[in-house]
From TrEMBL:
Organism lineage: Bacteria, Pseudomonadati, Pseudomonadota, Alphaproteobacteria, Rhodobacterales
Signal sequence extent: 1-20
Entry keyword annotation includes Membrane: yes
Subcellular location: Cell outer membrane
One Pfam family per UniProt: MipA
Main subcellular location of this protein, as a coarse class: membrane
Entry keyword Membrane: yes
Record's GO cellular component terms: cell outer membrane
Keywords from the named record: Cell outer membrane, Membrane, Signal
Family per record: Belongs to the MipA/OmpV family.
Organism whose genome encodes this protein: Paracoccus laeviglucosivorans
Name by which UniProt lists this protein: Outer membrane protein
Length: 246
């Protein structure tokens, strides 16, 4: 994971002139921002689902509404992760609580026709201070002028600080929880396939939905706290399409 981060940072630095030119060529940045609800695993590795808020900040596009910018583009990458209170779950009794975490980084997109391939890297702060990211691809399909669909496949990665926080068991936790100490390595920790939909209620307001099936893998999947490797989720919400013109 450290090598992946280093290569990403080096390639980003080398691409700086191209990044600047990319933004100079863009006359508009658009994104969906809103709120909804998700029904997903209680924590990563849980076999039980619960409902939680879904804070929507997604579908960032560069270019005019009539056509997303083709080729390479660079945009910020953000993610929020909720806290984990171990006393709320029988399987986590004796483990340390994990605070809410924010992640900030950079994402590179490559758009060709209806296909978007992407890679992102972010640094965590708060609940974890690891380095995470994902690589994936999406296919966009527009049955009519109101409905847009995306199908996607994605691989999520995290360094050993990240996997240790969410899947590890320290020596002190082993004493209080009864689990054996477990120190997972970094690397790919989850693979996802998804179907997303956006239905335009008005020109600027949309109903959003997403169905995802994720599966834990590698050292994360082998953690003693993991009850189920399969991690399905469904989300629905309302978002406003925000357009920033230059």
């Amino acid at each position: 994971m450290r090598r992946l981060l280093a290569l990403t940072l080096i390639s980003t630095s080398l691409a700086a002139p191209a990044v600047a030119q990319s933004f100079l060529d863009v006359d508009q940045v658009s994104l969906d921002a809103g709120i909804g609800a998700s029904y997903s695993p209680e924590y990563m590795g849980s076999g039980d689902n619960n409902a939680s808020p879904w804070f929507i900040l997604k579908n960032v596009t560069l270019g005019t509404p009539e056509g997303e910018k083709q080729g390479f583009s660079f945009i910020p990458s953000l993610r929020y992760m909720g806290d984990r209170d171990s006393s709320d779950y029988d399987r986590l009794q004796g483990l340390d609580d994990i605070d809410r975490a924010g992640e900030l980084g950079l994402r590179v997109n490559y758009v060709t026709g209806p296909f978007t391939s992407y890679g992102a890297v972010r640094k965590g702060f708060g609940g974890h201070d690891g380095v995470v990211g994902e690589i994936g691809t999406k296919y966009r399909f527009e049955p009519n002028d109101k409905l847009t669909l995306w199908t996607g496949a994605e691989l999520e990665l995290g360094d050993d600080k990240f996997t240790g926080t969410y899947f590890g068991v320290s020596d002190s936790e082993a004493v209080s929880s009864g689990y054996s100490a477990y120190d997972p390595d970094g690397g790919p920790y989850r693979a996802n396939i998804s179907l997303e939909a956006r239905y335009m209620l008005t020109p600027d307001t949309s109903l959003l939905g997403k169905v995802t099936y994720g599966r834990l893998m590698g050292d994360a999947a082998d953690s003693p706290i993991v009850e189920e490797k399969g991690q399905p989720s469904i989300s629905i919400g309302v978002a406003r399409r925000l357009n920033f013109r230059f």
